[in-house]
Structures are given as C-alpha cells and as structure tokens.
Amino acid sequence: MEESVLRLKELLFPSIADVAVLSVDVNIEIVRVDAQRTADGAVCPVCGVWSNRVHGSYLRFPADVPSGGRSVVLQLRVRRFTCRNSGCARRTFVEQISGLTRRLRQCASRIRNSVVNDYA
C-alpha cells in the first residue's frame, strides 16, 4: 500500500516536495486526493523565523487541473503555526505548499498556470 501511495504522489505532484498523498478516491466524475505537507514546520512569511508550534489545522479544497476528463478535488490538510518571534506583527500563519497553494487563493497554482499558458 505504501509503495502505491508513493507512486501516486510522484504521478500527481511530481515537482512538489514535502507532500504526502494520504488517499485517492476515483469515481466516474471525480478524482478526490487527500494530501498534507510533511515538513515539521514552516517559515513565517513576515519575519522569516522557522516555527514548528502548531496552533491548529483545517482543510483546504483548491481547484486543480482535470485528469482524464474527470474533475480533480484536492483535500489538503494545512496547519496554522504560531510565530516564535515575539516581535513579529503576525501572531499565526498558515503553511503554504510551494507549487500547489498560495495565500488567499481558491485554486491550485497548477490550474492558474494552466489557464495563463493557454492564453499566452
């Protein structure tokens, strides 16, 4: 099972590090991928200080590029960290998955890049 999930990660996210595919559910219309980041912590986007103090977590559902005529739904578990720098203006921040998510975006970076490339 572990080996097949590793292969799925390589197929679905070939250029994205620190992501674990937890499960994939495929039906006639939709491919649902459950994933999460595997790094121990994240860097505060304001002050640049590393933190591994988890404040909480929640699910994000960014739209992704279709696959084989099916809609792809990503279910990403992301963590909110507490900044360890007491002088930082940002008390908490959410981890971002480079190449997949961006702050305040509703779609995966891959779908945004796909749309931009189609019109370039």
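That was protein one. Protein two is written in the same sequence-then-structure order:
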Amino acid sequence: MAFKYSICHPEKEDIEYRNNPISEKEVIEIAKNYPWIEKLKFSNSLKQENVQYNPSLDFTNIKNKMSFCLTAAFDKNEKLEFSLWYNRPKKVKILFGLLGEKEKMVVDDYWSLNFEDSMMYLEYFVNGNYSKIEKLYRK
C-alpha cells in the first residue's frame, strides 16, 4: 500500500502536505521518529493566540482514501498522549433509518492513548487491519 501525509505545525496556519507516496514502513518510521515532545514544548512556549494546532501527523491511504491522524498533547502530568482520528467509509442511517442506509466517510476520534498504543493502532492502519481499529471505537 502507498500513503501520503500531512503535518500540522503548532505555529503555522497552513498545513504542510507531503504528497509523494510512502510505504507502510516509512509511515511507521515517520511517526516514531517525529519530535512530538519537542513540538509540544515549543507549542507551550508560544502565546496561546499564536498556537494554530497541536502537533499532528495525518496519514492517508492513496488507494482507498482512508486516513489515520495522530495528534499529540501533554496530559496533566506532562506525559505524552495522543488522540487518534480515524476517517473511513461507514454505513449511516438516512432519516433515522427510514430511508435505509448509505455509506459515507466518517471521522471518529479517541483520546488519551499513550505513545506505544498509538503506534500499535497506526500499524494496524497501515497493514489494513481495520477491524482491530474499529474495536477501539466501540469501547
């Protein structure tokens, strides 16, 4: 599978798009080696009105358009934690189910995961193990 990704920098209003295709292995390497803590410390050093985003990496599967985003924050003890944003096709009811169902892209989020668990879910995403990610959103 091939992926592209985008980066949200704390101080920049514009999102940085990296559209050159990358592999599953490169996705994991980029996420694991990203300077999450340094970016959060930098963000905390800015005036609040100058912070545009929490540090984030959003990976998109080029073929099926599904995406998985990691957004970093510090918890109350200043430990690194992530929110995960999963964008995929999902069946939704039309008019409370009276008109049936249709499939559309839906984003769900999950908050307060540690680095290791976040990387595990990212690996599920890049390897196409979507059912394991869905279990997270059913909790």
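The first helix runs from residue 24 to 33. Keep this in mind for the problem set.
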